Every structure is written in C-alpha cells, then in structure tokens.
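Help! Submission page says 'invalid entity' but I think these are all valid:
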Amino acid sequence: MSAIAAGSGGGEGINPVASVIGIVLILVTLAITYIAAPVAIAALVGVIVGGLLIGFGVHFVPVGGAPAAMGQSPGIATGVAMLAAGAGLAGLFGGAWAAANPAFDFAVVIAAGAVGGGLMMAITCLMVNVIYIFGMGIPAASGKVAKDPITGDTQEAYKSQGTEGHGLPFISYVGGVIGGLLGGAGGTLIYYELLQVYAAALPTVFSADAAEVLPIAVSLAGIFAIGMFLVNAVLAAYNITGTIEGPHDPKFKRFPRAIIGCATASAVCGLFAILIVVV
Amino acid sequence: MESVLFGIGVTALAGALATIAGAAEDTESNIGSQGDPNSQVQLAPQMGYIHRIYNKAVSGEPPAYGLWVTISAGVAWAFMATGMNPVLALVIASALAIFVQGVYATTAYLGRTASLAKFEQPVYIDVLRSVTTVTMAHAFVAVFPAVAMCYLLIAALGHPFPLALLGIVWGIALGAAGSATGNPFYGKERQYQSQKFGAGVPISASGNIVRYAEAGQRSSLDNGWFTAKLAGPASGVCFGLIVFLEIWRTVLFEEVASGWGAIIAGVVIILIFMIIDRYIEVWARKNYGPYQAEATEEVSA
C-alpha cells in the first residue's frame, strides 16, 4: 500500500475519554508545580502553550513524503516530523540568539523565533517549487481542492494522470510559512520559559554566581526545547498519518485532538524539566 | 561599523559553508539512497525489478544528519577543551563522525537488502565496497562545513548555544533542507527516466525504477553523477540561503528599533520569496499548460 492509499485508523473526531484524561493530566502537572515550585507555574503554562503551538503549526506544513518525491502527491518530499523540526529548530536558533540580548523583551524573542522558522520554510518551499518547475517540468496542482483558496487557480486540469497532484500550490506555500512561524514561536516560547526558571534556580543549586551558571542554563533549556519540539512534532505527525497538503487539506480538521495531545505531552515533559532544578 | 563589517564577513563565510554542506548532503543521500524516494528502491524487488542501487535509509535524512553533525561537534568541542587547534579539532572530529556514518551505511545496506532476500534481491559485495566509501567521502564534505559553520557562529558571532547543541539544530535543518529540495529530482527525474518528461509518476508505476545505465547496470554512483548537476546545488542554495539570510538580517538589523528591525527584515524577505514563488507558479501554468495525456504509453526500461 502506498502512503497515499494508507488511511488513518483513528477517524477525525475527538475521543472524549482520552481528551478528559489528557486535561486531567495537565491539571495534575499544574497542581504539582504549584505545590513544589509556585514561581514556575507561569513557566509551565508557557511550555504547554508552546507545545500546542508546535502541534498546531505542524498541521500547516505541506508534506508529501515519498509520493511527493515521485510527483505523485503535492507537498514537500520529506516526513512531517522531520520538516517541522527543521523549521522549528531554525526558529529556535534565532529565538535563542535574541534571548541572549538582555535589551530585548519577551515579544521580540518570540517574534524572532517565529520569523526564523517562517523564513526557513519560505526558502525551502520556494526551492521545492523551483525543482518541480525548472528541474522536472511539472506545474503545481492540488489533488484535494478544485480551486486554490487564495488565488482561485483551478487545479484539476494541471494534475498528471494517475497522481494525486504535485508541486506546491500557493495555498500550500502559505501554509508552510504559517507552520514555520507557529513552530518557531512555540519552540522559542518553551526555551524562553525554561531559561527563566533555570537562570533563577541554578545559582542556588550550584551555589555559584548567575553569570557562571548561565551557560548551563542555556544548554539545559536548549536541550529540553529541542526534545519537546521533537515530541510535539512526532505526536502531530501521528495525527496526520503520512501526507498533508496544508490548511485546505481535509486532514487539517483533525488538529484539535493533536492540540490536546501536544498540550498534555508538553505539560508532563515541562513538569520534569522544571522539577530537575527545584526539587 | 567595524563590528558590523566583521559580522557581514562571517555571515558570508557561514552562508558559503552552508551551501557546500547542502550540496554535498543531497548528493550523499542520493548516492546512499537515503531520502524519501528510497521507498521505491525498497519496493522495486517486490515488484520484480532486481537492482544494484544502494539503500541505507533506516531513518530519515534529518535525524541521521542531526546525529553525524552532533557527533562531530561534540568530539570537536572535547578536542578544543584539551587545547587542540580549532581547525584541526574540527577536521579530526568530522573524520571520526564519518566512521560512524560508514558503519551505519554498511549495516543499513546489508540489513535492508537482506530483508528483500525472499524477493531474490542479492547483496552485491562490489556495490557495498564501491558505494560505501564514496558516500562516506561525500558525508565528510557535508559534515565538516556544517560543523565549521556552527563553530563560526559561536566563536565569531557569539551565539549562546554550545557547539553540540548548534550541531543538533543545524544538522537537522541541513537534512530537512536537502531532503525537501533534492529528493524530488532524484526520485522522479533519476529513478523514473522512462516516464515521460513533464508529469508526475503515476501511482501504478511505483517500484518500476530505471535499473540500467548508459553502459551496463546502474549503480548508485551513477545517481551521484546525475543529481550533482541540479538537485545537489539546489539543496546547497536552499540551505545556504537559510543560514545566510537568518544571520544577515540579525547582524545588520538587530540594533534597529530595539530588536524589531531584524524581525521586520525577516518578514519582508518572506514576502519577497512568496512573490517569487507565485511568479514562477504562474509562469509554469502559462508555459506548460494543462496536462496532456499521451496517446501511447511509453515502454519502461
């Protein structure tokens, strides 16, 4: 069975029992944090919001997997988690750089991360279309909608026989950039919140100056941000199951359950990330 | 002013290193058949097409390159901590990381090909011998500039992340950019040259990859020769632009409007790329026109 034919076994609805368990887990992590380290409660909320931003953002990224590499389906020819992680980490690079400058406030740091991720996706999406159009002689065509929701271009006539479409239609391009923006912002938000916790707690843990432990705080926050990025990207990829064209794809409607899943996973991961310095 | 000029020089050098890394990364993954089109290489024997193409795709390119660049970055950091010259440390660390890549390539090829034994796909020892060393050489050309770039970002531009952490970030981004850009050209244009030009490969043709070169049977070395002409450089330009523009806008505009300057510059660049993309999309539609079915199916090789 090809990746195109492979369907999702989970359907599109939200599983109420699983969702309630997820929300209870989030509340439990918040309660534990409130008891163990009340000052870190805002940081945990930030981590949860960052995680759900990543999970939501992954659904925008147009990914065609192996079929896209043969021009059998639209999207970028790589895996969902891989591409979303690449874009988000490029955003984290910019966000961490901005966070190192004490003159910049919270909004600048998050925006720097978002734009870094969006820029990575904008360049990658353009080069993908360049290869399709000038390397393979194939125009972009979507298999999921009759008309591009942004430009109004008709799709059916440009689709090669026996394929689900190919290339990156403009809506997919815009979706990719939005996905990069959300992923970069989410990853940077996780990094920033954890950095605040570590920078405040580590001098006491090591009985050292704040300046001395700052490199350790940066490294720890960076490692946890990257780890949580991969956790959320992979979780969202399971929701997508293979390929997605972007916000116009019917699979996009599944995002609410991914958001609950990602928020829950981020809450648990965030709790451990905070507890290692406060307990 | 001098610091800005210095920053721009470092930015240009980092962009150039990233371009080399991207180009070599895609060529390496095409020779080793590690990108997404590898599913066709794996599928071909099941459809009755025995081939001599290398196949080492146990994981995707991004995590694999994340691993190799991070190993190199970590070892280089350890060498530098002992007082070794940074350039020497980066070279030796990259070479050591490539031995890990070589072991990975060997076991992956043997394992994946052996799993196709029931479809009578043999393990070609000469393919193993000739391709593994070539893919290792290309991996070195990809990993060394990537790690050198990471070192430059820390030593010259003062990025707060330690070397190994930047290795993870840019290793995964390198794999993602190369995998996204170069793979379609290898997958469609190289593996399915028997299909007519200017159209996607029909799903019914999956697994029917081209197995013969100009003289004799095709091996993965032919794939490297072919894709190095377009897919590799395109991947290089993609990764080079990502690194260059990301650093350029920060170095030049970070001090403008208390940090918002770099963000506004980033948004403007994104919009410019969006306009270029729309232009080439319309250009393709006008020049290629709607899909035209051929009267007769071409016979595949």
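Support: the input was valid. A stray whitespace character was the problem, and the output above is from the cleaned input. Residues 16-278 of chain A form one domain.
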